[in-house]
Write a structure and sequence with these properties.
Number of strands: 21
Largest sheet: 11 strands, mixed
InterPro entries: Lysidine-tRNA-synth_C, Rossmann-like_a/b/a_fold, TilS/TtcA_N, tRNA_Ile_lys_synt, tRNA_Ile_lys_synt_N, tRNA_Ile_lys_synt_subst-bd
CATH topology of the largest domain: Rossmann fold
Protein name: tRNA(Ile)-lysidine synthase
CATH class of the largest domain: Alpha Beta
Structural class: alpha/beta
Shape: elongated
CATH superfamily of the largest domain: HUPs
Radius of gyration: 28 Å
Strand content: 15-25%
Pfam families: ATP_bind_3 (PF01171), TilS (PF09179), TilS_C (PF11734)
CATH architecture of the largest domain: 3-Layer(aba) Sandwich
Number of helices: 17
GO biological process, one term: tRNA modification
Enzyme class: ligase
Length: 471
C-alpha cells in the first residue's frame, strides 16, 4: 500500500507539470532520477497522450563508462519501444575554447543539443529529472558565488521550454521508486570526484549542515529557493513594465533618462540595466560588478564616457542619457572615452576597441618572462586601479616617459617636446587612474623599468586602418 502511494506521488508530480498531449524530449543520463522520470512518463503515456523522445548526451569525459551509459539508455528505450536519440559532444575542448569550467561547458553543450533535438522533433518541452537535492545544491553553489535573487531562486519548475517536475521530490524517493518498479540504473563515478565543486557541496557541505544544524536542510533550502524565486519573478515583472514604459529601444541600442533610472529602487535599477544589455541579444549574464560599474558611470555624470561590456556591447553616458549599445553603433563610436574592467580583461585574455583610426588591443599575459612583439607592456601588479581607461588627457594626469629619470605632469611633458595644442586634444591615452601608461601610438610609460619578479603583464597594441579599409 505504501509503495503504491509513493509511485502515485511521483506520477502526480509529472501530471501536475505536463498537460495532456505534450510533445516531450526526455533528458536521460541513465541515472536513477532520469530513469525514474522516463519510466513515469511511459506509465502515463497512454492516459495523458504524451509523445516521447528520450535523449542521452555523452560528454566525452568518462571513456568506456560513458559509452556503457549510452548503451544502457538505448537498450532501456528499445525494450520499451520508445524513440531514442544519443548525441556526443566534447566538453573538455569546448571548456578550453570558451574558458569555462568543464562542468559549465558540459551543461551548456547538453542544453544546446537538447534544444536541437526539441526543434528536430517539433516537440514542446525538454523534461529533466532535477530533484530537491539538486535544488539545495544549486542554491548553496549560487550563495557561495555571491549571486543575487535570480541565482538564489535556483532552478524553476518551468523555464520557457524546460520543465522540471521533480524539484519537490528527494533523490532518496526517486531511488526508492526505481526499487519499487524493479528498474536498473547507472551510477556515474564522477559524481564522487571531489575535484568538482558541486560534489564537494553534495558530499562535504550538505552532510555537515544536516549533521550539525538541520537534518531537513535540503527541504529547507529548496523551500527558500522557491520563496526567493517568487520574489525575483515579481521584481522582474515590475522591471519589465518600467522598461516598456520608459526605455527607448531599436535593433542596436537601448537608452533611458538617467534621472529616472536613479530614482528607482536599487533592485529595479539594476534589473533594467541588465534588461537593456540582454535586449541586444548578448549571451550569458551581466555580473553584479559590471552592473555596478554601469551605475557608477551614470552617477559620475561624465558625458561621452564609454564602458565596455561583454558580448561586443558598451554603455555610454551622455548629457543625462544612458545608452547600452552594440560597440560599433554610431552612438557608441561617438564616445571617445572607453573603460575596461581589469577582472574582465584577465578573464577574457584579450579585449579590443575600435578607434576612429584603428583597432586598439589590450591583453593579459601570464608569465614571468616579459612578452615580446607588443607596442608596450606593463606589469599587472603595478596597475593601481580596478579599471583601465582609453581617453583624452585630463588635468592632473601624471606621465613617466620610458627612459627618463622620473615622472612629470603630462601637460609639462607635452610642453617639453613641443606638442601642438590640437594634437594634445586629440591624443588618446591608456590610463590607470591618473597614471598614464601609453600615449596611444607613441611614447610608453617607464614606471616599471626597474621592476623585478613580475608574474603577469598588460599588453597594449594598435593596428591602424589602411587607406583601403572601409573604416
Amino acid at each position: 500500500m505504501k509503495e503504491h502511494r509513493q509511485i502515485t506521488e511521483i506520477l502526480d508530480q509529472v501530471e501536475e507539470h505536463l498537460p495532456v498531449g505534450s510533445k516531450i524530449i526526455v533528458a536521460c543520463s541513465g541515472g536513477a532520477d532520469s530513469i525514474a522520470l522516463a519510466d513515469a512518463l511511459l506509465l502515463l503515456q497512454e492516459k495523458r497522450k504524451y509523445q516521447l523522445v528520450v535523449c542521452h548526451v555523452e560528454h566525452g569525459l568518462r571513456g568506456s563508462e560513458a559509452l556503457a551509459d549510452a548503451d544502457f539508455v538505448v537498450e532501456f528505450c528499445r525494450m520499451r519501444q520508445v524513440a531514442c536519440e544519443v548525441l556526443r559532444v566534447d566538453a573538455k575542448k569546448f571548456a578550453a575554447e570558451s574558458k569555462l569550467s568543464v562542468e559549465d561547458a558540459a551543461r551548456k553543450l547538453r542544453y544546446t543539443v537538447l534544444f536541437e533535438i526539441l526543434s528536430k522533433h517539433k516537440s514542446e518541452y525538454i523534461v529533466t529529472a532535477h530533484h530537491r537535492d539538486d535544488q539545495a545544491e544549486t542554491l548553496l553553489l549560487h550563495l557561495l558565488r555571491g549571486s543575487g535573487a535570480e541565482g538564489l531562486g535556483g532552478m524553476r519548475c518551468h523555464n520557457n521550454s524546460i520543465v522540471r517536475p521533480f524539484l519537490q521530490v528527494s533523490r532518496r524517493m526517486l531511488e526508492a521508486y526505481c526499487a519499487m518498479r524493479s528498474l536498473d540504473y547507472r551510477t556515474d563515478s564522477s559524481n564522487m570526484d571531489l575535484y568538482y565543486t558541486r560534489n564537494k557541496v553534495r558530499h562535504i557541505l550538505l552532510p555537515l549542515l544536516e549533521r550539525e544544524f538541520n537534518p531537513n536542510i535540503k527541504q529547507a533550502l529548496a523551500q527558500t529557493a522557491t520563496l526567493i524565486a517568487e520574489d525575483a519573478d515579481c521584481l522582474n515583472e515590475l522591471a519589465e513594465e518600467k522598461f516598456l514604459q520608459y526605455v527607448l529601444q531599436d535593433d542596436h541600442s537601448c537608452s533611458c533618462d538617467t534621472a529616472w533610472l536613479l530614482s528607482l529602487p536599487a533592485a529595479l535599477c539594476s534589473r533594467i540595466i541588465r534588461m537593456m544589455w540582454k535586449k541586444l541579444g548578448a549571451a550569458g549574464l551581466l555580473t553584479f560588478q559590471q552592473t555596478q560599474q554601469v551605475i557608477g558611470l551614470v552617477h559620475k555624470g561624465s558625458s561621452n564616457k564609454r564602458l565596455m561590456l561583454p558580448g561586443g556591447t558598451c554603455a555610454v553616458y551622455s548629457y543625462g542619457k544612458l545608452t547600452v549599445a552594440a560597440a560599433e553603433t554610431p552612438s557608441a563610436i561617438a564616445a571617445q572615452n572607453y573603460v575596461f574592467d581589469l577582472a574582465e580583461l584577465q578573464k577574457a585574455g584579450r579585449l579590443q576597441v575600435e578607434l576612429p583610426n584603428g583597432i586598439l588591443s589590450l591583453g593579459y599575459f601570464k608569465g614571468s618572462a616579459s612578452p615580446l612583439g607588443h607596442a608596450t607592456i606593463y606589469p599587472w601588479h603595478l596597475l593601481q586601479d580596478r579599471q583601465l581607461e582609453v581617453r583624452q588627457r585630463q588635468d592632473g594626469d601624471i606621465f613617466f616617459p620610458a627612459g627618463s629619470l622620473g615622472s612629470k605632469k603630462l601637460k609639462k611633458y607635452f610642453n617639453d617636446i613641443k606638442v601642438p595644442p590640437e594634437q594634445r586634444k586629440s591624443q588618446l591615452l591608456v590610463t590607470c587612474g591618473k597614471q598614464v601608461l601609453w600615449l596611444v601610438g607613441g611614447k610608453a610609460a617607464g614606471w616599471h623599468e626597474q621592476e623585478q619578479g613580475c608574474e603577469a603583464w598588460l599588453t597594449l597594441d594598435i593596428k591602424y586602418f589602411s587607406l583601403g579599409d572601409d573604416k
